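Section 3.1: Structural characterization of target chains.
Under the original work plan, the team committed to producing a structural model for every single-chain target entering the pipeline before any wet-lab resources were allocated. The record below documents one such target. The sequence was received from the expression subgroup and is listed exactly as submitted; it comprises 299 residues.
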Amino acid sequence: MTMPFADFAAHGSIAADEVLALRRAVWADGAISLDEAEALIALNARITQPSDEWRTFFVEALTVLLTEQGEPRGYVSSDQADWLVTRLGLSAPGAPVIELLVHLSERAQSVPPILRAFALERIETAIVERDADGQARVSADEVRWLRRLIFAPGSDGPACVSQSEAEALFRIKDRTLTADNAPEWKLLFVQGVANFLQGLAGAQAPSAEREAELERFIASPEPGLGSYLARATSGAANPLAGLRLAFAPSAVPTRNWQGEAAGAAALTGSETAWLKREVEADGQSDPYEEALAEFLRQG
């Protein structure tokens, strides 16, 4: 391709007609080369005001390169993941980069752990570095990205939240505790951490009915939750042993949920220790943790 990419985004933005010109040039031969992909990544790093047209094209082009032009199709290899992380690591965690990483986790049959970890780090960094004055907050877009990523098919266990992902949810919660976060954030925090604590491999994302139930609970918690977690996490050697799983076994009818849930309903010692450590990390209980504790107890 002979089109000079450096001529675009001179002022931090790219117009719709410029995106169209790039699209026609890149797809003129029906494929995207490695050189073209690297040029697009370099161009994206100069765009401070990405349009919807640019984000769509950027994600589309890189996804085709990584999932459709190699063998086996539909998989992101370790070498590809290393290349992408190296190239994107120099970029700010903007919307096109995050959307690409999340989309790859959704689209690919499997992605290397380094790519999912990098995607999670980019989202967390975007949240923490949102404002010049350091005021971190979670936006609705970031809630959607987090939800899509931690429940993506390309994960180690589809729809199963990993320990590192659950710990990231706790870090984000602690960093944005007093911020004007999107209302959906508390729901995702409770849902994601509870999913990790299930420990049931192969679980699917909750049904629409179960999610609606959780939304109602988060919106209208029962009185007295403020002291519940403090009571639950003090004194006894296994203080959370009575807490139950968050999601009903009926959410996935294709498995023997009755037998599996019976063996995994109570938190294990390691799960209890992990939750206690995360809860006590900031030295105080908060509404997010109270909602999590109560939802687990009622699950």
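The chain has 14 helices and no strands.
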